[in-house]
Amino acid sequence: MSKNRRMISVLGSTGSVGLNTLDVISRHGDSLAVFGLAANSSVDIMLEQCRVHQPRFAVMVQEAAAQELRQRLPDGSVTEVLQGAAGLNKIAADDEVDAVMAAIVGSAGLPSTLAAANAGKVLLLANKESLVMGGHLLMQAVREHGATLLPIDSEHNAIFQCMPVDTNGTPLHAGVSKVLLTASGGPFRTWTSQQMAEATPDQACAHPNWSMGRKISVDSASLMNKGLEFIEACWIFDLRPQQIEVVVHPQSIVHSMVQYVDGSVLAQLGNPDMRTPIAYGLGWPDRLESGVEPLDLVALGRLDFESPDEGRFPCLRLAREAVATGGTAMAVCNAANEVAVEAFLQKTICFTDIPRLIEQTLEQVSIVEPTTLSVVEQADREARQHTTQLISDGASPTMSRGRG
Ligand code: NDP
Ligand code: MG
Q1: Is the peptide bond between 285 and the residue preceding it cis, with omega within 30 degrees of 0?
Q2: Given Cys at both, which of 107, 139, 180, 224 links 219, Cβ 3.0 to 4.6 Å?
Q3: C-alpha dihedral over 23, 24, 29, 35, to 10 degrees?
Q4: Ligand 1 atom nearest to 39, measured from its CA
Q5: 148-151 vs 32-39, strand pairing mode
Q6: Once rounded to an integer, what is the mean pLDDT over residues 12-36?
Q7: Is residue 16 within 6 Å of ligand 1 at its C-beta?
Q8: Closest ligand 1 atom, CA of 17?
Q9: For helices 275-283 and 154-162, what crossing angle results, to 10°?
Q10: Is there an atom of ligand 1 within 6 Å of 58 CB?
Q11: For 2-11, what is the mean pLDDT?
């Protein structure tokens, strides 16, 4: 492989962000190469990705999946198969790696994201849950080890593009008064609470503008995605909660805005396609062609903005309260949400049970200072157990009905 090519590891390569990342990388074979790919258990997709991208390492977290991949790779393959957390850490932190796309879904992404930061890598951060859980630890690791954090979440990428930053990508606050975090409002933007109580997983996952994995799609429908992004923005841009305003923008064309003290508002616009923020991260500080259709504002005709309704969408309020509480409250909020979303996807609970379960978990689990990774992981485990118990006790009035 050419020495001049930047070596990229993609954690969560078989998911929605992972596939989009490999799409952008494949457009720039002269300057970018894949060092490592990682997934949980999707062997078929990983096998095909190994054939196309010829990575040095392919990591499967599940042992049986790693064994199967080893057996199915052709003789003489350049790819070595690794397994489990050690494999993730290896491809996140290896000396030969330049940039790491952190695109595992959920809290499972935290240790490998942290490993990339501790190794001083360019960290392309899609896995927002790792910042929500361990924001203090992750930002400290970035600072202490000279890592460069480039946000891939489209809103944070937009803010990053509109905010002054230093040569290492550290945001500077010069003249910034406020951030306007846009939200599509999701598929239930105009639904009543009663309609939402009857919503099916497929309805929740039918996002009007974005094509994404199922967990984040449910988060978008409940607005917990915006709650998590609110927390994410506080950490990445070192903002006070009062400096962030959530604005519902149903077309998902303005990806977020930064307001300055002189009254200027800078916005980043584009079609809702993750390849734009991914290409921005892979190319930074240069720009790369991404394959995204150019924006046609005339065809679009109009851009609308409205306030979020925290009455119908309590998750936004819960995330805001978790920030105000501080400590491990954000990790607890995230863990309760992950368990509740999975239960909703399994049709064990109703859509409107999700915020109820998060609120009860936040009220009942003790909150401590998130001093180390193990403290954060312990808070995550406790919250998961608690929410799981609430579900099996049928703690919410609608829960016992189950879902058809
Ligand atoms: P997907 O569900 O599409 O993909 C998840 C990826 O993570 C898959 O590669 C999956 O592997 C892997 N994975 C799941 N569990 C584990 C585990 N325990 N250990 C290691 N790998 C695991 O998710 P998305 O791509 O939609 O989202 C990824 C992250 O990016 C999330 O944090 C999300 O919030 C964030 N994000 C996503 C956006 C999007 O447009 N999709 C936009 C902004 C942020 P396998 O296939 O084997 O299960
Ligand atoms: Mg987003």
Answers
A1: yes
A2: 224
A3: -80
A4: 11
A5: unpaired
A6: 98
A7: yes
A8: 25
A9: 50
A10: no
A11: 88
Q: CA-CA distance, 291 to 62, in Å (whole number)? A: 33
Residues facing residue 221 across a β-bridge: none
Q: Is the pTM of this model over 0.90?
A: yes
Average pLDDT, the chain: 96
Residue nearest to atom 40 of ligand 1 (CA): 212
Give me ligand 1 centre to Cα 274, in Å: 13
Reported as a single tens digit per residue, the pLDDT across 233-279 is 999 999 999 999 999 999 999 999 999 999 999 999 999 999 999 99
239: phi then psi, degrees, rounded to nearest 5: -105, 150
CA atoms within 13 A on the CB side of 254: 21
Q: Rounded distance, CA 9 to CA 88, Å?
A: 10
Give the per-residue pLDDT at 173.
Answer: 87
Residue range 157-199, pLDDT digits in tens: 999 999 999 999 999 989 999 999 999 999 999 999 999 999 9
180 C-alpha vs ligand 2 centroid, how far in Å? 13
Specify the residue with its C-alpha closest to ligand 1, atom 16.
Answer: 40
**More confidently predicted of 116 and 173:** 116
Q: Please tell me the distance between residue 152's alpha carbon and the centre of ligand 1 in angstroms.
A: 13
Q: For ligand 1, what atom is nearest to the CA of residue 215?
A: 2
Q: Quick one: which H or E segment has residue 151?
A: strand 148-151
Q: Whose CA is nearest to atom 15 of ligand 1?
A: 40
pLDDT greater than 70 at residue 48: yes
Q: Which atom of ligand 1 is nearest to the CA of 127?
A: 32
- The rounded radius of gyration (Å) of the Cα atoms in the chain is 21
